[in-house]
Amino acid sequence: MDEKRVEMYARELFDAERNRAAIPPMTERDDSFNLDMAYAVQMANVSRVLAMGHRICGKKIGLTSLPMQKQMGVNEPDYGHLFAAMACVDGQVPADALIQPKIEAELAFILKKDLRGGSVTAADVADATDYVVGAFEIVDSRVVDWRIKLPDTVADNASSGRYVLGTTRIAPRDVDLAGVAMKLYKLKDSSQDEGGMELMGEGVGAAVLGDPLVAVAWLANKLWSYGVALEAGETVLSGAFSAAPAARKGDVFQAEFTHFGCVEARFI
């Protein structure tokens, strides 16, 4: 693998996030830019961010649902790392720190055991999970106009931005996760006569590779092929239930889940 090109693309993406200025897609400039190189770029920036003193707190799987794959023009999931600084504990999302954010409603798994070895099953995920909560992932692309193919988004840490966790905790075997229903709303401008919430999307857990447990198992096995494990204590974002609407400063979104209650994100 060409280490100089890996470092060049990693630096471009790192600077794009820091300067909030998107770059052209790697796949449009380099015919040999493939998934293996993309993951090497992602890991180069993971190492860079760790060296700055940040801490990995989890992993994410994205583009698990057909609507999201169609929206982004890809045909399989992607994956990336979560850092503690990405967590929006109070649901307040710093819009000015992002470039072109979109918001996804999904379920998050908090692990109590490692998932490693490359042959992880959905049952293994259930055994390793402490609890599940409703969540928002705020995705953001450092690639101009979201003009991505799979290697572009993988290189860009799976378009990770920020995330918000709900407060209702449920053990994974206490509810049928594939049957969980979600409705995503955006708060209308309170100055408008109609007020209220606008339905932006809806879906069920089965949209996430058939079952969010299956999605997390896929992620564990895919990451293991690159020598990366899902570890005890980590948060795993399992993938969106529906397509992701764009978000901007001042927007307020709510996701209402069966069993898991309401999660809110405010872009400030």
Description of the structure:
With 268 residues, the protein is an alpha+beta fold. A hairpin with a 3-residue loop joins strand 10 and strand 11.
List keywords for this structure.
268 residues; alpha+beta; 6-stranded mixed β-sheet; 5-stranded mixed β-sheet
Chain-wise SSE layout:
Blueprint: H1 3-19, H2 26-29, H3 35-51, E1 56-62, H4 66-72, E2 78-83, E3 92-93, E4 102-111, H5 122-128, E5 129-139, H6 150-155, E6 162-165, E7 181-187, E8 197-204, H7 212-224, E9 235-240, E10 252-257, E11 261-267
Parallel strand pairs: 1-9, 3-11
Antiparallel strand pairs: 1-2, 4-5, 4-9, 5-6, 7-8, 7-10, 10-11
Helix pairs in contact: 1-3, 5-7
What's the quick description here?
The chain is an alpha+beta fold.
